[in-house]
Amino acid sequence: MLRCDTWILFCLMISGTIRLNCTCSEHALHQALFKDYNKLLRPVKNQSTTTFLKSNTDVYSIVSVNEQEESIDLVLWDVQTWQDEFLQWNPTDFDNCTSLYVPASEIWQPDYVVLNLLNSEPLISDSAFYVRIESNGLVAFGQTYYATLRCDMDITAFPFDTQTCPILGMLWLYDSKQINLTLSDEKQNLSTVRTDSAEFERVSFEGHELFFFDQIQNKTYSELRYDLKLRRLPEYYIYVLVVPSFLLTSLCIIGIFTPNSNTGDRNEKMTLGLTTLLSMAVILNITADAMPKSAKGLPLLGYYVLYEIGMCSLATILSTVIMFTHERATTQDWDPPAFIHWIANLKTPCQYFKNAMVSTKSEEPPLFDQQNELKLDMQKKDSENKKVWSIGLDRVDTTLLILLLISNCILTAVMLF
């Protein structure tokens, strides 16, 4: 009976010892570490020792891009690690505790700032931020926040533009001899963006280590630069602005310069040209609202819409000139000049003058009454002149139609491709 009780007692002692060895004494470890800890000073025992701060910034989401204010809204995730010489312990002294989680407000933190940060909102409260401390003194601190960053926009190629938005991080107080800021990723080709914007797609996101020398203080500061390169998706602007502008301008040109037109038909074409200009003005208003404003000049889309309006205006002006010339020529019995005869009959001016001289020399004395003959000749000449004017101006319409349509197609193709 005694041997049985002794065996039971021995088993309980062994099981209790194993249970105690497997339990991490976090409270005792916390009290031992923070008993004389000063979070206001850099955590090195020798002030000449350099603290290496490794930082990594990931873009979780691209919320929006504001070209008008030249800013970008992102959801960022920052992870920073450094060595704290006062937060080291032997795990065997504290029941094999290899790590400890404490609020971030209890330890020293580097004064890491983002220089081009306009506004930031943490997604969780400051009291909920915790850091992980390893037994060798390695501290890992991560935080996620909503950030509005300054980003200089170059919109001269809008809507086919590519923007590069930097994230500039540095230490506000410590120079590179005290704290050296480095990238956590040795390849400096950081993780991809998890959520792209509806208007932009990510091209690349890379980090670089830089050094800045302050001549006033004669100190060198370390910096990190993350470049987020974005490409705009132009499909919306192509289908909503470019294609309607191209079609309206083409219809305007076709409607105005369709051949076989008389003066009354030309008046209707003038109405078509003015209506098209009004429609283009509406498109220009929509384009002006959609385009970002910049002091660097008018965007590419703005030049394109202005060109389309200018082409419609030119077509209307040329149609007005042709209509005025045609009306004056038919009402005042103008003789068609040599180039109109050449256009109408496809003869050179030399051939025209040669035929006119031959017809003059080959005239024979009239057999009938000279007055009736002269009247018939005048009527025949007027009829022939009107026919020449009509055919010549119709061919001018056809030539202008082809030239303007080709110019419009070439410009649109150059812009799109």
Describe the structure.
It is found in: Membrane. Belongs to the ligand-gated ion channel (TC 1.A.9) family. This protein is α+β, with helices and mostly antiparallel strands. The chain has 2 domains: 48-233, Distorted Sandwich (Acetylcholine Binding Protein, Chain: A); 236-416. The protein has 8 helices and 11 strands. It has helices at residues 2-22, 26-33, 235-256, 263-290, 300-331, 338-345, 349-361, 370-416; strands at 51-66, 71-83, 99-103, 112-114, 117-122, 130-134, 138-150, 162-171, 179-183, 200-214, 219-232. Strands 1, 2, 3, 5, 6, 7 and 9 form a 7-stranded mixed β-sheet that branches. The protein has a 4-stranded antiparallel β-sheet with strand order 4-8-11-10, with no helix packed on it. α3 (235-256) runs parallel beside α5, α3 packs antiparallel against α8 (370-416) and α5 packs antiparallel against α8. The longest helix has 47 residues, at 370-416. The radius of gyration is 42 Å and the shape is rod-shaped. Residues 1-21 and 358-364 have low confidence and may be disordered.
